[in-house]
Amino acid sequence: MSPLPDSSARAYQVLLGLCGILIYTPPDAAALEVLRDQRGLFLEQPFSTVAPDAAKTLSDLLDGDVDDLRMKIANEHTFIFKMVAQSHASPYESVYRTCDSTLFGPTTLEVREAYRAHGQQFPRMAAEPDDHIGLELQFASTLLDKIASDSDEADAKTAEVAQRALRGFLAEHLLVFAPSCLGRVAEASSFGFYRAVAGIALAALTDLADALEVEATTSPLR
Predict the structure, then answer these.
(1) Bridge partners of 132?
(2) Is residue 185 a contact partner of residue 14, using CB atoms and an 8 Å limit?
(3) Which of 168, 176, 187 is nearest to 221 (CA)?
(4) What b/e readout covers 132-169, taking b as 16+ CB neighbours within 10 angstroms?
(5) What are the percentages of helix, strand and coil residues in the chain, rounded to 5?
(6) pLDDT 10s digits, 1-56
(7) Which of 68, 94, 127, 202 sits a CA distance of 20 to 30 A from 115?
(8) Where are the domains of the chain?
(9) What's the pLDDT at 153?
């Protein structure tokens, strides 16, 4: 498997990292103001290349009052990711990969070990399952950063290890449940913010999987 070009790794890092952050926690007023003021970037690469329609929708939605946007996005985030009995869009991988939709299932521990192996820690890891799709997208982004940082021989080795880890993580985790999860997020999105974010995330994962020539090792149970 040939190395992923630095430019491609950086593009996917940006796409998956941003989507992971937005899915995990709705933006506060300061972060949202930055997104609104820089919304034109969603009309440029890599967004315009990978997910042009979803990125334009996101840019259009961000053209508004910050306080109003923050309330609408926060309400949508709460409904989709906290009221899962109504939204049917749980963000946790184990829910999609166990017969009884168990939280903290076997995949949760597998994901935790993957994080640990690459020095990744998240703020609420002790308080919630590690296999939140937002965290998994951020982890993939972290690995992509390592792939794109091969400026010398030592870093080239790091990049090789990171690419191998990324291929495994995509095949064994994200590609298995993310399409189903992100599809449900899109269906449950009434304002449209998280439908656009889900569209960008899914397009980026699909393109990245093609670039790395990797497929899901199994299918979700639900």
Answers:
(1) 92
(2) no
(3) 176
(4) bbbbbbbbbbbbbbbbbbbeeeeeeeebeebbebbbeb
(5) 70, 0, 30
(6) 677 888 999 999 999 999 999 999 999 999 999 999 999 999 999 999 999 999 99
(7) 202
(8) 6-212
(9) 53
Looking at the domain covering 6-212, what would its CATH class be? mainly alpha
Q: Is 96 exposed, middle or buried (0-12, 13-18, 19+ CB in 10 A)?
A: buried
Whether 43 contacts 55, CB under 8 Å: yes
Looking at mean pLDDT, say which of 32-46, 123-137, 155-169 comes out highest: 32-46
Three-state secondary-structure class, residue 2: coil
Tell me the C-alpha to C-alpha distance, in Å, between residue 130 and each of 18, 112, 148, 209. 18, 6, 25, 22
CA distance 169 to 159: 15
- In one-letter notation, the amino acid at residue 108 is T
* Burial class (CB within 10 angstroms; exposed 0-12, middle 13-18, buried 19+) of 82: exposed
Of all residues in the chain, the percent with pLDDT exceeding 90 is 77
Q: Say if CB 32 and CB 69 are below 8 A apart.
A: yes
Can you name the residues that pair with 92 across neighbouring β-strands? 132
Please say whether the beta carbons of 147 and 163 come within 8 A: yes
The CA distance from 26 to 78, in Å, is: 9
- Evaluate whether 139 touches 120 at the Cβ level (below 8 Å): yes
Kindly write down the DSSP assignment for every residue of 164-210, as one continuous string. HHHHHHIIIIIHHHHHHHHHHHHHH-SSSHHHHHHHHHHHHHHHHHH
Q: Torsions phi, psi of 92, nearest 5?
A: -100, 130
3-class state of residue 125 by DSSP? coil
